[in-house]
Structure formats: C-alpha cells, structure tokens
Amino acid sequence: MSSAFKKQLSSVLQEGFVIKRSVFQSCLELYSMQEWNLMMAKINKLNRFVKKNNDFIRRFTAGVKMVDVDASGRILIPKDLCQFAGIEKQVVLSSAVNIIEIWDKDKYEKVIDDAVVDFAELAEEVMGNTEADELS
User: Fold this and answer.
1) Average pLDDT for residues 44-67, to the nearest whole number?
2) What is the pLDDT of residues 18-54, one digit of tens each?
3) Closest to 19 in 3D by CA, of 58, 87, 75, 57
4) pLDDT (tens digit per residue) in 74-102
5) Neighbours of 133 (CB within 10 A)
6) Interior angle at CA 22, CA 38 and CA 94, nearest 5
C-alpha cells in the first residue's frame, strides 16, 4: 500500500476491513468496518421470512471475510476470493464511492475498454436530471 493511500486511510486501518465478492462484476469489494456496519444495518432491516430477502442475504454475504492490514500496509486476499475475481498477478484498486473494488488488472482494463454503453450517454442519463430530482 502506498504511503499516500495509507495516510488517507489511517483513521480506519486499525478497525480492519471486510472483503467480499462483488454483486455485479467479477471483482472484490473492500469495505471499511464503518461502511460494512452501515450496510449490515440496512440488511438487518430486511424481513428474513420473505424468501427473496433470505436468498439475497445469503448470496450477498457469501465469501465475506474480515481482513486486517499488516505492518507493511498489505492486505492478504483469501485464495477463494482471488479465484472468484480471477486475480492472477497484478491488481487494480478502484474507488467506488464508499468502497474499494479490487480487480485483476487485465479484467479491469477489459471491462473499461469493452464498455458497450457510450459513457457520455450514460453520464447524461444517470447524472443529467439533477435539477428535476432536487425540485421533487
């Protein structure tokens, strides 16, 4: 972990992290304990007697592991999660707002390059109507 990255995360390093399979991509998601606790608070509100909710919870938490940063600033990614994400050698850390995605470098570059949707159109569709959202 670079010293700049380590400095930015200094307040959360002691608490450890949660690493899990991504819901939508062949990558991993790294949560600070604070973010994980917020997510679990949302999930704990789901009624487990509704089958879809129970199925979601099971799949969302599949492969969840607690990880710590070692003295050298490294996180050991469990082997089963490396296999899920197809991590071979080099990794890319990608910010996803409140979590960090961990990708195999080649897979990440392919996903970025193979984007079927034109990013300008996607950006307009997702972010373009902020005024209308604020007025309602």
Assistant:
1) 93
2) 999 998 889 999 999 999 999 999 999 999 999 999 9
3) 75
4) 889 999 999 999 999 999 999 888 999 99
5) 8
6) 85
The phi and psi torsions of 77 (rounded to 5 degrees) equal -85, 120
pTM for this structure? 0.78
CA distance 83 to 65: 14
Query: What does pLDDT average to over the chain?
Result: 86
CA–CA distance from 104 to each of 51, 85, 86, 91 (Å)?
Answer: 34, 7, 6, 5
In single-letter form, the type of residue at position 134 comes to E
Could you tell me if residue 56 is left (phi over 0), alpha (psi between -120 and 50 degrees) or otherwise beta? alpha
Q: Token pair of 64, please? A: 């969840």
Residue of 116, 113, 117, 85 lying closest to 21 (CA atoms): 85
Q: Indicate the DSSP class of residue 97.
A: T
User: Higher confidence at residue 132 or residue 119?
Assistant: 119
